[in-house]
């Protein structure tokens, strides 16, 4: 340990504010970048899932309709 | 490789090479403006303009710092080990300012060749070491100096 | 011979590989970075001249390394985009440009805060600092240009050309301290020569540099995956993967 006490560690012989500001900004930006990237990835994945869910439901509906068309003819009678 | 890709690669390489040459020539032409400061030798050769705000940099000569006891005025000589220039400055010096350390000063060169600084920045080198190591080195170099002095003394007494 | 190269260009293949490597990159990066920073902050001896303010080096140097390495890797990807029209290379450039911007900003910011107590000034227009500021603007320009062009293919080419134009700045940053008089000191951390600092300072610096490189690897993977998901969402393999993940 290069320091005698915790308060000496924080003060860094007067250079504390400079050192700690740098480390704080570094930590905040790096963590922010990582969290932002994870969130973007999740939302992109969710978008994809939503799109394919609705698509597969729509196609299922379409096939259901096609199957029904054999029994009930839906032609306007005018 | 596909001939079209080869052609594209050649174009890309030419683009980068051409740009590199252009930028290289520009920076070479502007090198005096890119230099942050004048060396003491350049000032001694008269390359630095007089009474124009310029920067001068070098090492603070050992034993040249004279502090005015009445005010914040400091006088010192800055050297690059082949020429030196006298400087004066009124104000608070950076923590790292010391004899044997690098400085970059902003100010004007007057007609007598004295540099009147209005801002002094400390320049340090790329070596880092713990204080104990620095002390040990200092002691070692002093020891060597002393040994050299003793040797010289021995030589002179031998004559 | 070119087979591995084209395989590398397959988004699906990359997606699988990235997913496999990411936990290791994240764990290794966080571990090395934390070890390097704690060692550097609390256990490394102080400097004989600068005292404790030199401890900023443990984040300043890794950030500056990353800022330049990211640009170089973007330039390589730009050549691949222009010559081989590989989609993945463009995905890479687009995904990591903001990361490069952040690291360039961090190296400028930590340098300014470090400069105040040591040099006596926050900023000086010397060659090193100015060329680093130009790098920041280049990253900003790359991001802006990519957003300004809607068509994916023309955006990719325009961005690649801009990245290649900017690459001449990299040797200028690196050698500025040797070619010109600058306030900034020459490099301390060199791969080819003996470092000009003792082991108990150099090892924590090495650890934090390696840790940040690994974290960058992780960031690149996750951001590229996002970009691939957005671009390839209509393809069969994305659909299969997404629907399989749902079950």
UniProtKB/TrEMBL annotation, chain A:
Topology term for the membrane: Single-pass membrane protein
GO cellular component: plasma membrane
Renumbered residue ranges of the record's region Disordered: 51-78
Residues making up the signal peptide according to the UniProt record: none
InterPro entries hit by this protein: Haem_export_protD_CcmD (IPR007078), Heme_exporter_D (IPR052075)
Any one Gene Ontology BP term: heme transport
Segments crossing the lipid bilayer: 18-36
Biased composition (Low complexity): 59-69
Main localisation: membrane
Job of this protein: Required for the export of heme to the periplasm for the biogenesis of c-type cytochromes.
Family: Belongs to the CcmD/CycX/HelD family.
Protein name according to UniProt: Heme exporter protein D
TrEMBL record, chain B:
Keyword entries, A-Z: Cell inner membrane, Cell membrane, Cytochrome c-type biogenesis, Heme, Iron, Membrane, Metal-binding, Signal-anchor, Transmembrane, Transmembrane helix
Record's subcellular location: Cell inner membrane; Cell membrane
Gene Ontology MF: a single term: heme binding
InterPro entries: CcmE (IPR004329), CcmE-like_sf (IPR036127), NA-bd_OB-fold (IPR012340)
Mode of membrane association: Single-pass type II membrane protein
Positions on the Extracellular side per record topology: 30-159
GO CC field: plasma membrane
GO biological process: cytochrome complex assembly; protein-heme linkage
Chain positions recorded as heme binding sites: 124, 128
Biological role: Heme chaperone required for the biogenesis of c-type cytochromes. Transiently binds heme delivered by CcmC and transfers the heme to apo-cytochromes in a process facilitated by CcmF and CcmH.
Protein family membership: Belongs to the CcmE/CycJ family.
Protein name: Cytochrome c-type biogenesis protein CcmE
Organism: Marinobacter nauticus
Organismal lineage: Bacteria, Pseudomonadati, Pseudomonadota, Gammaproteobacteria, Pseudomonadales
Automatic annotation (TrEMBL), chain C:
UniProt membrane topology term: Multi-pass membrane protein
Keywords: Cell inner membrane, Cell membrane, Cytochrome c-type biogenesis, Membrane, Transmembrane, Transmembrane helix, Transport
Gene Ontology cellular component terms for the protein in this record: plasma membrane
Single annotated GO MF: heme binding
Transmembrane helix listed as a keyword: yes
Keyword Secreted among UniProt keywords: no
Pfam families given in the database record: Cytochrom_C_asm (PF01578)
GO BP terms, alphabetized: cytochrome complex assembly
Main localization category: membrane
Similarity comment text for this entry: Belongs to the CcmC/CycZ/HelC family.
Function (record text): Required for the export of heme to the periplasm for the biogenesis of c-type cytochromes.
UniProt name for this protein: Heme exporter protein C
